[in-house]
Amino acid sequence: MGRTALVTGAGRGIGRAIALRLARDGVRVGVHYGSSADAAKQTVEEITAAGGEAFAIQARLGAPGDADALWTAFDEHADGLDILVNNAGVLGGRIPFADVTEATYDEVFAVNTKAPFFVTQQGLSRLRDGGRIVNVSTRITHGAHTPELMAYAMSKAAIDTFTATLAKELGPRGITVNAVGPGATDTDMNTTRLATEEGRAAIAAQSPLRRVAQPADIADVVAFLASDDARWVTGQWLDASGGSML
Q1: For residues 110 and 66, is the Cβ–Cβ distance under 8 A?
Q2: Which of 211, 218, 208 is nearest to 239 (CA)?
Q3: 33 classed as catalytic
Q4: Which of 56, 112, 127, 190 has the most CB atoms lying inside 10 A of its own CB?
């Protein structure tokens, strides 16, 4: 029996790249989206055109009942799960600390922290023993402090704790739980910063490799953690920022 994955926020950016990479590895992929129906459809079509299997499911994330709605939609397409990738997230904007509103703070934590918690909790009855959970975090939880992204970093720091603690909880079932920490990546989230030569050069200079990360760079790391090759790695936060923390 082939493996089945669910990737949240898989219509665009890093999530899309993860879905495409897992499909190339022979995994049947659930492409979750919140509002980007056309983008999710394109992801599914690209996977199927290459000979893979995929299906799209829609669900908002962060409000009461959202996780249940997601899994109800998933159950219409699959009878079990092997890989869960909690990728969906929002930045909340680059906002000075004094200007962060309660509404922005609540949205960031609802999508980035609450949603993965309850999506995972409700998905455990579907996740097979020996499965994989990969959470997409950020490099800025490990020292690259950015004041205008404080709420975002706090929401992801909670995910890092969630990752390590859940690994202990699920270890007896042979399920590994890990997180990846990307840096600035060439996605919609960084469109403005990458729109100029100066901005692109500044981001590229953060890495000793002197280039801007592509979504596929992160997806390949996630694919490793989702594979049997990573069977002895659990509870870890893996720097996927091109060495920008050096």
Answers
A1: no
A2: 218
A3: no
A4: 112
Closest residue by Cα to residue 5 from 125, 85, 63: 85
Q: Is 117 exposed, middle or buried (0-12, 13-18, 19+ CB in 10 A)?
A: middle
Q: Which domains does the chain have, with CATH numbers?
A: 4-239 (3.40.50.720)
Residue ranges of the chain whose pLDDT lies below 70: 1
Residue with tokens 């299906």: 55
**Residue 160: CA atoms inside 13 Å, Cβ hemisphere, count?**
18
The full 3-state SS of 61-115, as one line of letters, equals CCCCCHHHHHHHHHHCCCCCEEEEEECCCCCCCCCCHHHCCHHHHHHHHHHHHHH
Structure tokens at 14: 């890093």
Catalytic residue among 33, 74, 109, 152: 152
Structure tokens at 189: 């989230």
